[in-house]
Specification:
about 150 residues; 5-stranded mixed beta sheet; globular
Length: about 150
């Protein structure tokens, strides 16, 4: 979690907070999506995270993907923005958030994915028709990806 959000949490506690986040749907040459198993709930999600003060959304995507997977994404394509109840989440410590989640799509990247931070325990490319248990805030996003890839 960003230092900025941690500082806000010191002032407001666990009450709901609107948080701008950005993520990336990384697709390999076999049309599989890269997912990470999160450490906070053991569920699977696309790479992404909070926008830092002064950072662009695309900058956030590139930074977060690199921090979480070791990959350098290129040729990002805007996918969609998600907000509202589908992006409501309560962390195990009780902190409550409503994400405004800007999602990009990428099938051009450099590197080999590896767990590169404390937020995930595993990374894998998954067949879109055979997905593991998704984190609640990823379900609508991945459902839209499935429609996109099958169209």
């Amino acid at each position: 979690m960003s230092d900025y959000i941690l500082e806000i949490r010191k002032k407001i506690g666990s009450m709901p907070l609107v948080v701008s986040v950005a993520g990336c749907l990384i697709i390999d040459d076999q049309n599989r999506v890269l997912l990470q198993r999160r450490t906070d709930n053991q569920q699977w999600s696309h790479p992404g995270g909070a926008v830092e003060l002064g950072e662009t959304v695309e900058g956030t995507v590139k930074r977060e993907v690199y921090e979480e997977t070791g990959l350098k994404v290129q040729d990002l394509k805007f996918f969609n923005i998600y907000s509202g109840e589908s992006q409501h989440y309560t962390y195990p410590n009780g902190d409550e958030v409503y994400f405004v989640n800007v999602i990009y799509f990428c099938n051009n990247y450099k590197g080999v994915p590896f767990v590169n931070d404390q937020e995930s325990t595993e990374l894998k490319f998954c067949e879109i028709e055979s997905l593991p248990e998704l984190a609640p805030t990823s379900k609508e996003i991945i459902a839209d990806l499935k429609v996109y890839l099958n169209s």
